[in-house]
Design goal:
- There is one protein chain.
- This protein has three helices and six strands, in the order ααββαββββ.
- It is α+β, with helices and mostly antiparallel strands.
- The protein has a single domain, classed as Nuclear Transport Factor 2, Chain: A.
- A six-stranded mixed β-sheet has the order 2-1-6-5-4-3.
- α1 runs antiparallel to α2.
Length: 126
């Protein structure tokens, strides 16, 4: 079980990937702050509810993620963290075919009421 803030934040990333692959709306909602937004590679900004809906309706299909690295930096105040996840993700998105993407997500996390939540993710490739 994750015990340090760094381990907890790395697990948030893993949990988001797992929940997205499983189309688990509750699991996704649990790790995402209400004001979360995903910024896609295209620059499109997608709020939490729209992101979860797109996963559930098949606009975004994630099948698996093999994590190459997860780096976490927690600020000295212990309330904010930067997470960089680099994973090979099998996905079919926005009507395209299924491919394996070398997906990098630069995420921001915040501790709110004592609980770490993801507040933003910027997607790119590596």
């Amino acid at each position: 079980m994750a015990t340090t803030d760094e381990e907890i934040c790395a697990q948030l990333y893993r949990d988001l990937c797992d929940a997205s692959s499983a189309k688990d709306a509750d699991g996704m909602a649990k790790v995402l702050a209400d004001d979360y937004a995903l910024v896609h590679m295209t620059g499109m900004r997608q709020p939490k509810r729209a992101y979860i809906a797109a996963v559930l309706d098949g606009t975004l299909n994630y099948y698996s993620a093999e994590h190459d690295s997860i780096e976490v930096t927690v600020t000295p105040d212990g309330e904010h963290a930067a997470i960089r996840g680099r994973s090979r993700v099998s996905a079919a998105v926005f009507g395209g075919g299924r491919h394996t993407w070398r997906l990098q997500q630069d995420l921001k996390a915040e501790k709110r009421d004592g609980e770490w939540l993801l507040v933003e993710s910027l997607a790119s490739t590596y």
